[in-house]
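Why do we care about 3D structure at all? Because function follows from shape, and shape follows, mostly, from sequence. That is the central idea of this module. The next example makes it concrete: a single protein chain, its amino acid sequence, and then its structure expressed as tokens.
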Amino acid sequence: MNVRLSTPRRLAAIAIALSMTLPSLTACGDDSTQAPTDANAPVTLTWWHNGNQDPALGVWQSVADQYHKDHPNVSFKVEPAQNEALKTKISVALQSPNPPSIFQQWGGGALATQVESGKILDMTEQVKPWIAELGGAAQGWQVDGKQYGIPYDLHVVGFWYRKDLFEQAGIAGAPKTMAELNDAVTKLKAKNITPISIGSKDKWPDAFWWSYFAIRECSTDTVKNTVKNLKMDDPCWVKAGEDLKAFLDTKPFQDAFLGTPAQQGAGSSAGLVANGKAAMELQGDWELPTMIPLTEDKQFASKLSWFPFPTIEGGKGTPGTALGGGDGFSCAVKAGPACADFLKYVASADVQSKLVSSNTATLPANPKAISAIQDASLKTVQEYLNGAPYIQVYFDQALPTSVGQALNDAIADFFAGKGSPQGIVDAFGKAVANK
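And the structure:
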């Protein structure tokens, strides 16, 4: 029986999925990475985040400005970057002697890999007085029980769809099964409407598809054990690839989808849905604010709705299991106590409510800010997340960095017509052996 979970349980479900994957690590480093101890000393914090367009661009700047006003000794050098570019920048920076003071952090196995650099601040003692305000969600940004990051929002992946295009195609309601999704694809094609957009140029949107087929085909225990023990030996993983192949054979995506970016420009997969050029997209809750600068249609949000990934007949996955994760920030050791205090401010109910009301964040990590959600579709997403019996963190984030990247690459190759369902599993095994 699928029992509806309360909001604290929703936070704990994401936390468990993230924290159970983190390996035991001993951070290394040298004296040059030690944090300053004087909390009142003047400091300038370099802040890297992925809000490189409004509204996020302006909102994050206003958060920095307000904190500086309240704490004149703390100044900021804010350097926003596009999401994919930022991930590469962070990886390179953590190999240098001068990483940014504050940077975007998605937790999970990737965080554990980063902690090995010895350059990420352990803020456990500083956050102890207030971290409980976030419930269990903060555990996903821990390694060995130590706090190395603070989340500001949580995520779940599902289908954003155009109600107007569904109506044109005679689709009565949101698909609940794969058979109904396939039927919707057929009806949309009959009306010369692109059924589904995807930004395969960026690879990670492809992984959402394989991941959802996997958590529908595999039991929750199998998924947990695979992530924990790094063994993909259950036949359900191959079956997930076979399901994906069958779906790809229906040709549900836009022309030239392999060269389409996910979020950059009106021709991106997000832009295609925002401008009514495609009926659906499998993406995270963040897609609604992502679409704002990609269309001139100021009423586009009213034409959208959301539904979860359909069920698969015969699959062993727990009904309602979701794919998700979250966004947060980590501090460099050199940033010192001012950085951890700033993240306390970012995690506060007031700031999180501001993030939600401005479309900078969608599903806040602080439960006290949930009431700030006003969009009807996002309320639907929040309700689904509240009721999910388990949230599997994106595999590329849950797994060690090299393994997650190899899995994404193999799935992207599969979308490009290379490899096989077994090949995806083999790529995972090879990456584990070589890590």
